[in-house]
Design a protein that fits this description.
With 926 residues, this protein is an alpha+beta fold. Helices cover 22% and strands 31% of the residues. Keywords: Hydrolase.
Length: 926
């Protein structure tokens, strides 16, 4: 199997330097990141993964050295911390306990370990971390073209977010050229006369910025810094520079600023209007020289600015660029800036300056034109082959002053022109040529969800009409967060394979500064998608440093009364249930738990326990006799009715079940954290809500909940609300309804996960298979048949607005946990111990998945062949797994061609193996 061979190859590459019987620490992390540049914690946590050539390998001890320089570390001098030998199998979340760490300082560390046989490893490769500056050390000065007071930007606000009413739209019209909203260039010359050892840059350009040193871009971010509620948190970025980034004598810092979510515009399309102030910059660079001296260059009144060639930039409306306004070499030495103006010192944003620890958004893929149609002379529509979030890159040639307008959209009208009606219009990019050969342009401060590009009044590749500009080349840039992928999945069922692809293209499109609902019309962080798709998100992507930023945003957005709004950051307040819905707000309780389960990291539970309590307490104020009745319910549940509010199931049933779940998880957190009083309070509350829920919604005669809908019956089973003596009857009623509906679902955005997992966890994976192995609506197959490349907002794409929505992607959890069988053990979080328990369903002949856990790569790959069930598994060093085989009690089992003895579980009807780390091939008769 090619998949398993690739696993073996990666293992071999990792352990080539490990001699037989040894173990080696790799992938060293500090605060869940490799070589982070802005560690805030005084006592950061360290960790590593382990590799070994042998099976059943584990760690029994470690020794860590932390040094003030790499030279000292290379000489085994841990002048900052030398742990000595510590006897433990722990290799993650090890709290630093050396000398007090200084701010704005880089430290170097390495580790060696002892294996289960007492053999010591070689030293790991060196790792590093840099501590963040104190805010007093930053002492930020914010600069720009105009003060907030002089900008006359609207100040209308509701509660703590900088939003204002649509009646104020007129104050925004034709304002994009004003200094309050115009993209500006800022520059600062400085001199370097000595040999540079290193330099560190701290920068926040709001809404977004591009930084250059001597004309060369620093970093690869798009849309930096990541979005926040700027009244609460302002992210800054940190970059390390080396001697090669500077030149002796004159040097120049250049910064380009755009609006982003900090300062939206009303021209063209916009979802809402928000301004925290005009574009603004904070900058600090500390240069260290070889002679030990230091120099600081920072934002102050000595900088200069000029309007940039970007004449319009809106995160919702598009971007315009006039190449005739370019000032060649403005970011380099020798440029004459006599016509540039002195910057003004601006009012600082209200939010606390925090280092951005989540990964940046970057250009991840680029697509060429797939097909092109000339609808009429010089009127072209290009199919780029993939619906995505991003922007085009164009190469054009023509006369000075000619312009090209680039329209983008997800779909097409009947006549073949682009259709923006569902996704927000008008949205476009304008480029004005300077008439200097072939010109290339890529927008910087606006993106959209699109697959098709429409350009009128052009030649394409050939100069047929001399009076028109010529499009020489067109590319589509796919942008999403650079957190990286953690897993992969494939199987013998093409519907499931294509479904996995559709969902992940949609996740990537919406994996931006926050997880958004869609990359065009709203770009808002609706919270329910995170918790309802949480396991699928974490199986597919590395979210160790992203979810902490999400929780900071949730904490920032929590109201004084405890309400967690449906969207975070809350740039716009919709009001009513669209601001306050328990299924959305409870994400602030669920997410820290999911994070703990998947990464074994208790830090979010510790830090945000007050947020969890406060939200559950808030729901208590909305409850009557422990019943909560507001919210959106099972949003977009399926039926003949129009999508929207829950129609099939009671909203109160949904709201109350999530009130219970919030109280239950808060009690679990309190117990884990040793908060006895809180545990007793929330455990009792959960019990009271459970009793009230069953009294209000359960019919003992029919053994049904609520309206007898699939959502009504699945939720109490999943959340363990149903009393044990009734569980089987409720389950049978649920199955009967599914069968009556032709093996089709009736749940919605909220209910899908509970339905899917209720079936998966209760031995009904065949029902799951039938429910999704078809090309009808509701079902993923209908979207595949429709020819889409991303998941849409509704099962029938023709009915919904967005064609790039991962809201309905909850089946990813089933792909990894059930079909491939990789399942965490809640008693050993972070996959310290886990289960491999694949489900062989329908006519499937194989399934395979791998997952990069915090301990290392886990892999499960099974196939049915010649009457045999063959399972290949990989178990990381220092972990163990329970293998549950879907074969009879009498089936003979071989592991790596040797006979093995397994126990048999009568309840599950599966043979059970307990295995330590290693790579295994398990073969048995079906």
């Amino acid at each position: 199997m090619k998949f398993f061979k690739s696993i073996l190859l990666s293992v071999c590459l990792l352990v080539t330097i490990v001699s037989k019987g040894q173990i080696l620490p790799v992938r060293l992390i500090t605060e869940m990141a490799e070589n982070p540049l802005a560690v805030v914690e005084n006592k950061p946590r360290l960790g590593w993964q382990l590799v070994s050539k042998e099976s059943n390998a584990s760690q029994i001890a470690y020794l860590i050295l932390v040094a003030s320089s790499e030279e000292k570390l290379n000489n085994d001098d841990g002048d900052i911390w030398n742990t000595g030998r510590v006897n433990t199998d722990k290799n993650l979340h090890i709290v630093y306990n050396g000398k007090p760490l200084k701010s704005e300082t880089k430290y170097f560390w390495k580790v060696k370990v002892w294996n289960q046989e007492g053999k010591v490893s070689k030293w790991s490769k060196n790792a590093s971390f840099r501590t963040a500056p104190l805010e007093s050390d930053l002492n930020p000065t914010w600069i720009g073209a105009i003060t907030k007071a002089d900008s006359h930007l609207p100040e209308g606000r509701t509660y703590h977010t900088a939003t204002f009413n649509r009646e104020k739209k007129n104050s925004f019209i034709n304002a994009s050229d004003s200094l309050a909203r115009r993209s500006i260039m800022l520059r600062k010359p400085f001199e370097v006369e000595k040999a540079v050892k290193e330099a560190v840059v701290y920068i926040s350009g709001l809404g977004h910025y591009e930084l250059t040193i001597n004309g060369k871009k620093v970093g690869n971010s798009q849309f930096a810094p990541l979005w926040t509620d700027y009244d609460k948190t302002v992210n800054y970025n940190v970059y390390e520079l080396s001697a090669k980034d500077f030149q002796k004598g004159d040097n120049v810092i250049g910064v380009l600023l755009g609006n982003g979510m900090y300062n939206t515009l009303a021209e063209r399309y916009t979802k809402f209007f928000v301004s925290f102030g005009p574009p603004t910059l904070f900058f600090k660079m500390k240069i260290k020289y070889n002679d030990g001296s230091e120099e600081i260059v920072k934002s102050d009144g000595t900088w200069k600015y000029s309007k940039s060639p970007i004449t319009y930039n809106s995160i919702f409306g598009g971007e315009d660029y006039n190449a005739n306004l370019e000032q060649k070499g403005w970011g380099n030495k020798g440029f004459k800036d006599r016509d540039w103006k002195k910057v003004v010192v601006q009012e600082a944003p209200k939010g606390v300056l925090r280092p951005q620890t989540a990964p940046p958004v970057t250009i991840q893929k680029q697509y060429e034109v797939k097909t092109v149609k000339e609808l009429k002379p010089n009127f072209y529509v290009f199919d780029m082959g993939q619906n995505l979030s991003g922007f085009p890159t164009i190469k054009v040639k023509g006369k000075r002053g000619q312009s090209i307008r680039v329209w983008v959209a997800e779909g097409l009208n009947e006549e073949g022109t682009i259709a923006q009606g569902r996704s927000g219009k008008p949205y476009y990019y304008d480029y004005t040529l300077k008439g200097d050969g072939i010109e290339e342009w890529t927008p910087k401060f606006s993106y959209y969800g699109y697959q098709y590009v429409q350009i009128e009044n052009i030649n394409y590749k050939e100069d047929k009409n001399k009076e028109l500009p010529t499009l020489v080349d067109l590319k589509s840039n796919f942008i999403y967060n650079s957190a990286g992928e953690a897993g992969s999945f494939a199987c013998s069922n093409e519907i499931f394979n294509k479904t996995h692809e559709l969902i992940n293209n949609s996740i990537k499109s919406n994996f931006q500064s926050v997880f958004t609902d869609c990359p065009q019309r709203e770009k808002l962080g609706w919270l329910e998608e995170i918790q309802l798709n949480g396991p699928g998100l974490m199986f597919n992507y590395n979210l160790q440093t992203f979810f902490p930023a999400t929780m900071q945003n949730i904490s920032d957005s929590q109201r004084d009364n405890g309400l967690i709004p449906t969207i975070v950051p809350e740039y716009v307040i919709f009001g009513g249930d669209f601001t306050d819905s328990p299924e959305w707000g409870v994400t602030g309780v669920i997410l820290p738990w999911m994070y703990y389960e998947y990464y074994g990291d208790v830090s979010l539970l510790e830090k945000y326990f007050p947020v969890m309590k406060k939200y559950v307490d808030y729901l208590g104020t909305k409850a009557t006799n422990n019943i909560v009745s507001h919210g959106l319910g099972d949003w977009y549940d399926y039926g003949t009715h129009a999508a929207g509010y829950s129609k099939n199931s009671p909203i109160a049933l949904s709201a109350t079940s999530h009130y219970y779940y919030g109280a239950y998880l808060t009690a679990k957190a309190a117990k884990l954290l040793g908060k006895t009083e809180d545990f007793e309070k929330y455990n009792a509350l959960a019990s009271e809500i459970k009793t009230a829920f069953n009294k209000e919604f359960f019919n003992e005669e029919t053994k049904q909940y609520g309206t007898n809908s699939q959502f009504s019956n699945a939720v109490p089973i999943f959340m363990d609300i149903v009393e044990p003596q009734y569980k089987e009857a409720v389950m049978q009623n649920l199955l009967a309804d599914i069968k009556e509906k032709g093996d089709r679902l009736t749940t919605g955005d909220v209910g899908n996960r509970y339905l899917f997992q209720t079936l998966a966890q209760n031995g009904e994976n065949e029902t799951m298979f039938r429910m999704h192995n078809h090309y009808d609506a509701p079902g993923y197959g209908f979207q595949i048949k429709f020819g889409l490349t991303t998941l849409t907002e509704q099962w029938d794409p023709r009915k919904g607005n967005s064609w790039n929505h991962f809201m309905l992607g909850q089946i990813e959890e089933w792909f990894y946990q059930s079909l491939a069988g990789i399942k965490s053990d809640p008693d050993k979080p972070g996959f310290k111990h886990f289960f491999i328990q694949p489900e062989v369903v329908g006519d499937m002949t194989f399934a395979k998945a791998e997952y990069q856990s915090v301990y290392g790569k886990i892999a499960s790959s099974w196939e049915k062949k010649d009457g045999k069930f063959i399972l290949n598994v990989r178990i990381p060093v220092n972990t163990a797994a329970t293998i549950k085989l879907p074969v009879s009690k009498s089936s003979e089992i071989k592991i790596n061609d040797k006979r093995a003895r397994a126990s048999f579980n009568e309840k599950d009807k599966k043979q059970i193996l307990e295995l330590g780390s290693g790579v295994y091939t398990i073969e048995c008769q079906l």
